[in-house]
């Protein structure tokens, strides 16, 4: 790829099917973006049409969530299934972050917005590689098991709504990751699988940043349009996210990421336990 704009690079990642290749290209594009930023000659944002759905490998087979076999984390097979599900989430996240860059490139944003999502995409690519390494160390690989078909739904539902995308993807879905990751780390720690614990610890630490980027730029846009952030968040999540949010919430990490309790508790399926 020569003299690409940031949007061209985003589309190149989105149209790369193989997981390892997508992750490698994503990391390469991020390195180019930050090298140009450091040199004081930022790449142009440009305009490029992202695909409706990103290219994905032939395997894993994508199934309706109700048809994905239930996993029992107390067994080696269950732990592999859990890692496989995480790898699938990470690959989807690579695409989600490049997609927000390309899809909403017509909205003028500060360069810091692009810095944040390029960094997030780079980290998701690292996460996909780390979890794929874990799967391979356990004698499996990404693609060996079926995976959720519904992962791109949030992107489709918010394809026309920039603030809706920020509300649902980083501030709901990635925040959910903060709630459930400590439990996953526990499972692998109890099973004595150190490399998976290490990978999940990296993911857990870096995901706080992604939620924080979501909150930062959501609040920025609320300020630009003189909207009340909490009310707007509730309206958009109810419009685009299907079903209530599920407690328990990781209030400490959510706070660290700039998500106050009055943003998520009113959307939960039971009242706050105080
Ligand atoms: Fe991640
Ligand atoms: Fe993330």
Automatic annotation (TrEMBL):
Residues 43-75 are annotated as: Disordered. InterPro entries: DUF455, Ferritin-like_SF, UCP012318. SUPFAM superfamilies: Ferritin-like. Transmembrane segments: none annotated. It holds the Pfam family DUF455. Residues 55-70 have a biased composition (Basic and acidic residues). It comes from the Bacteria. This is Uncharacterized conserved protein, contains ferritin-like DUF455 domain. It comes from Salinihabitans flavidus.
